[in-house]
Design brief:
13 strands; about 20% strand; alpha/beta; 7-stranded mixed beta sheet; 2-enoyl-CoA Hydratase, Chain A, domain 1; 4-stranded mixed beta sheet; globular; Enoyl-CoA delta isomerase 1, mitochondrial; 10 helices; about 290 residues; acetylation
């Protein structure tokens, strides 16, 4: 299960700092197949890059690696913040892998959906500072990852868009996707955007408050590091408790309804009409290639 926020003993804002004049500690990397992680122990900041070509879709494998990587970082006292980005140009993450939802068994759907829940519970409830450095388009589940972070910086390019576009595929964003979205942009914008399955180009996403700022692509990493430093200047315990207080209601709502949420996903996904619209969508994607 998921560990509650603030389970790690607070570091009371005393991350190990390098004495001046000493060479910086090398960045430690541990990578799985689809997620690259580099931790710079001197700054306490990790970079997690999605690397699952062609479009970083969130398959069961990717979701599992994501949770394992995040847990490793949470358990490492040297790590205080994580920046999420993509190793693939033009795409942050295309969201949930539709092939995991098409023509599979009820058991498979249950396992897949549990992994999606786990990813969100870990990320939304993470006591480290989390920043999304969105360097490409970010529909559906990709948008959920960004929404679940503390801060979102996106590349200033109208070709890149972000949003929960589930309605376009004839599927419904679950209540906890909706809750996360409402908490970022407010009820009215979320209501319109979700019903229309809208994908918002970067400038519009900024205007709606869906992302916090836009920067030129070459400035993205530098900006993410600067914002991270600003957040890490806070005493950890005060920031962590505040975050937990702000997010607890939404987290608890899924935690107490996990099993029925899985059951609902199985019933919904197994419907022939939904299978048909997913197949149509996959066919359309194949033709686009």
């Amino acid at each position: 299960g998921v560990l509650p926020l603030g389970r790690r003993p607070p570091a009371w804002g005393t991350a190990a700092r390098q004495p001046p004049g000493l060479p910086l500690a090398p960045a430690r990397a541990f990578s799985n197949n689809k997620i690259l992680v580099e931790l710079d122990e001197s700054s306490g900041v990790a970079m997690m890059k999605f690397k699952s070509p062609p479009v970083n879709s969130l398959s069961l494998d990717v979701l599992t690696e994501f949770c394992i990587s995040l847990e490793k970082l949470e358990n490492n006292r040297a790590c205080r913040g994580v920046i999420f980005t993509s190793a693939i140009p033009k795409i942050f993450s295309s969201g949930l892998d539709i092939t995991e939802m098409c023509g599979k068994s009820a058991e498979h759907y249950a396992e897949f959906w549990r992994a999606v829940q786990e990813m969100w519970l870990r990320l939304y409830g993470c006591n480290m500072v989390t920043i999304a450095a969105v360097n490409g388009s970010s529909p559906a589940g990709g948008c959920l990852i960004a929404l679940s972070c503390d801060y979102r910086i996106m590349v200033d390019n109208p070709k890149f868009s972000i949003g929960l576009n589930e309605a376009q595929l004839g599927i419904v964003a679950p209540f906890w996707f909706k809750d996360t979205f409402v908490n970022v942009v407010g009820q009215r914008i979320a209501e319109r955007s979700l019903q229309l399955g809208a994908l918002h180009p970067a400038p519009e996403a900024l205007k709606l408050g869906l992302v916090d700022e836009l920067v030129p692509e070459e400035k993205l990493q530098e900006k993410a590091a600067a914002v991270m430093a600003q957040w890490l200047a806070m005493p950890d315990h005060a920031r962590q408790i505040t975050k937990s207080m702000m997010r607890k209601t939404v987290l608890d709502r899924l935690i107490s309804h996990r099993e029925e949420d899985i059951q609902h996903f199985i019933n919904f996904t197994s419907k022939e009409s939904i299978q048909k619209s997913l197949r149509t969508y996959m066919e359309m994607l194949r033709k686009k290639k």
